[in-house]
Amino acid sequence: MDLIDKPLVELVQGLGRKEYSSEELTQAYLDAIAARDGEIGAYLLVCQDALEAARDWDAKRAGGGPLPPLAGIPVALKDNICTKGITTTCASRILENFTPPYDAHVVEKLRAAGCILLGKLNMDEFAMGSSTENSAFKITRNPRATDRVPGGSSGGSAAAVAAREAPFALGSDTGGSIRQPAAFCGVVGMKPTYGCVSRYGLVAFASSLDQIGPLTKTVEDNALVLNLIAGHDSRDATSIDSPAEDYAALVREKIPVGSRTPVGSRTPAGSRTPVGDGVKGLRIGLAREFFAQGITPDVRDAVLAAVKKYEKLGAKIVELSMPNIANALPAYYVISSAEASSNLARFDGVRYGYRAKAAGLTQGRFDDIEDFYKKTRSEGFGPEVKRRIMLGTFVLSAGYYDAYYKKAQQVRAIIRGEFDKAFEECDTLVSPVAPTVAYKIGEKSANPLEMYMGDVYSVPVNIAGLPALSLPCGKGADGLPVGMQLIGPPFSETRLYQLGAAFERETGGCL
User: Fold this and answer.
1) pLDDT for 84-97, tens place per residue?
2) CATH number of the domain at 3-325+416-507, please?
3) Cα–Cα distance between 117 and 185 in angstroms, integer?
4) Which end of the chain has fewer CB within 10 Å, C or N?
5) Is the pTM of the predicted complex or chain greater than 0.85?
6) Active-site hit among 6, 22, 78, 470
7) Rounded CA gap, 274 and 199, in Å?
8) Residue among 22, 92, 131, 177 flagged as catalytic
9) Per residue in 292-335, pLDDT tens?
């Protein structure tokens, strides 16, 4: 097995045993990027000092003494996560030359853990999209079939892991932007509970929905990364101030029988409940609404076959109904667009690098400051971003606020209540991540509403602020990956990881 094919956990162990050096490992990934990324297009920027950083960690390892947990391990980041001294563009012209003066909280955590930054990854502009076709700079292709999209908006992150161009990556999830690319590319992606991971240094799209999370080869790798990035941060007012669980230590333990996590509660760090036999006794919920709208037979069959495996392991399948789930998608696009309209108002051409010129791309001179703003924003933002800004501005405008934004927030409360009720009947919900496998590049770009419908199973999780794990569960049309989504109550990440790991052990991993 080549170095770049090894799971993250094995890479950490191999470095610890000095089977290879951090320089050799980092070079292997840089070679993979050089060989493959011309076709895949996952990276917007490759860090030229990565090898130097690797040599530094090798020297520290040779000197003996304690090292941080991921000393000398490379990582790649979605390009809406701020990195000090390294451009952070959000795949937008308007931030093309923006170099943050600080690191995001998750970047601080990864640096402290010893990680080496390989580069910044492509995405849909400002995380607005489901295919990574909306980047201002390039289209990213799915490594499983290069005529297909990798999903979005964290398409570069999923593609980099699937193409073995990074051992793991971070993405952000506002309405499925970690889980859907993970499903399309056949990797593992976690959208943590809202507030579990600090959003400090994440360029905001929709502040009440955004959450950073990891994309990895395996469930155990994913748990290890969440261990490093989760936790309270006083700079983020929405960060939850409570003890984090040791996901990496708990993921291999069998799932506690009869341990029902009350909605909104959190297991104290280090606590242990007597374990049962695998998933035996766990109640897995199937909401019929998650298997209805637009789902293709191949996706339905793959997910239901995975559920049968859980049933074989002793889980109890509970069928239920969540009738208001269908309302999550329109509520999401009202809320997210309204928040985007407010958040993106700061990009006016005065700061952050890009501004229109009086001659060149635009004709003539500026009439006044408003004209300057209009021309800068018209040139700097792409079509999808402008579409959502206009929608958000409309739903927040006088006379329409109550009819749209306020009503969407009321729907949000109803959906949260519906999940609470569902988790009284079951411990975990299982659903598809997306209604189809990865579609062809250009297939849906001319019809935004059709592309929005691809988020129908992922956005309810963000609306309710819940954790959800996407992992490959089989293959669909044309042999493309199908993703299964495990959804739990707030702060049930450990249970989701344990369930995911049990499925990986049962199947040997699907891809």
Assistant:
1) 999 999 999 999 99
2) 3.90.1300.10
3) 22
4) N
5) yes
6) 78
7) 35
8) 177
9) 878 999 999 999 999 999 999 999 999 999 999 999 999 999 99
